[in-house]
Design brief:
alpha/beta, 11 strands, about 20% strand, globular
């Protein structure tokens, strides 16, 4: 999943390059190994996209309990990070990979990147998130790509905000929506996949023809769409954005509250819950990992109650385990998406390239 999923909050926290999230030393080894035994590494390396984040105290508790020091190797967005692992498969740069989502999952599995491992605590993961029955990957988080709306705009115009994909092609919403390019942006691709899930292979092109006729604007990426063109965000207000509808995430309204200055009592933006595509992110034990035992412990940690409850305010995503509770910021200001659109990972893998090409020819050119 793209780093834009984390919106403003995680971007502030994201570090560059290799980040060791511990006060402990680097590649220390266990000196207690007996004669003829290979010393066990005390470092476990997580390869991820740039937006992985965890509270220091939560990570240190895991390190103290497990005896491992966690090193995080951040490698750009999800696509770039996955490409690097494919190029180095068999001799991975780390022990665990985090961040492959359901739009890229089949590519990762087809390349044989992961060693099957049934994580401790997997029984707490909700069944709908377990897409790989061989347990080559473990679900860690979910997030919904959805159209967000500027509450003030629609209140001033006395127009009900749209709630469904069908609404967006109605005359009252002409020239109001900005979306990201499906060829260059994760949320842009997710919104395209929402239309495929809703209207099917035979109907999505007709839908986009109508959306184009209704004045949809396409920009390169989330930052431009949300923080420049969208009138409802703090950034968009400063940039004098004039589009009150934008493709973003269901977690965007809580972020607007969290980072508002002053912090508002109510989110200035809302979510059209009938426009959403659900992304699920996974972690997997890399085949050829130098520290396989440490990697297994790290995967276990990623679905532990402690990490799952820390994750929403660190990466602005939802937990996937039944025993984790959402913070009040999410329950009060976030949107519950009960029926998101989904497309099977294998179907995405088989059709993604041709769908994007057809979309580009239809909407952009």
């Amino acid at each position: 999943m793209s780093t834009t999923k984390k919106i403003a909050g995680a971007a502030l926290a994201a570090a560059l390059g290799v980040t060791t999230l511990s006060a402990c030393g680097g590649d220390a080894e266990d000196k207690t190994a007996g004669a003829g035994e290979t010393p066990k590494s005390k470092t476990v390396t997580l390869v991820s996209h740039d937006s992985f984040n965890v509270t220091d105290t939560v990570l240190k508790e895991f390190e103290q309990q497990s005896g491992y020091t966690v090193k995080v190797l951040k490698s750009g967005d999800a696509g770039a990070a996955l490409n690097q692992e494919i190029l180095t498969k068999g001799s991975p740069r780390g022990d665990v990979f985090f961040g492959v989502d359901n739009t890229l999952l089949s590519r990762a599995l087809d390349n044989g990147l992961f060693t099957p491992y049934e994580a401790k605590g997997l029984a707490e993961v909700k069944p709908e998130y377990v897409l790989d029955k061989e347990h080559r990957v473990t679900p860690v988080d979910s997030g919904d790509i959805c159209v967000n709306y500027d509450k003030a705009y629609f209140a001033d115009k006395k127009i009900a905000p749209p709630q469904t994909l069908d609404d967006l092609i109605k005359p009252e919403y002409k020239n109001l929506l900005v979306t990201e390019n499906a060829a260059t942006s994760s949320p842009g691709l997710g919104f395209l996949l929402a239309s495929v899930g809703k209207y099917g292979e035979d109907g999505w092109k007709d839908y986009w023809s109508k959306l184009k006729a209704n004045g949809v604007e396409v920009v390169d990426g989330w930052e431009q769409a949300y923080n420049e063109r969208f009138s409802g965000s703090a950034g968009g207000k400063k940039a004098k954005g004039d589009r009150p509808l934008v493709v973003s995430y269901a977690s965007s309204p809580p972020v607007e509250v969290l980072y508002g200055e002053p912090q508002p009592a109510e989110a200035p933006t809302g979510v059209a819950t009938g426009t959403c595509f659900r992304q699920i992110e996974f972690a997997g034990l890399l085949k050829g990992a130098k520290n396989e035992e440490g990697g297994k412990a790290l995967v276990d940690f990623l679905i532990s109650k402690k990490f799952q409850e820390d994750m929403p305010l660190q990466m602005f995503v939802n937990p996937v385990t039944a025993n984790a509770s959402l913070p009040e910021l999410f329950t009060k200001h976030g949107a519950v998406v009960e029926k998101p659109e989904n497309v099977a990972p294998q179907t995405i893998a088989e059709n993604r390239e041709q769908w994007v090409k057809a979309w580009t020819a239809l909407v952009v050119k």
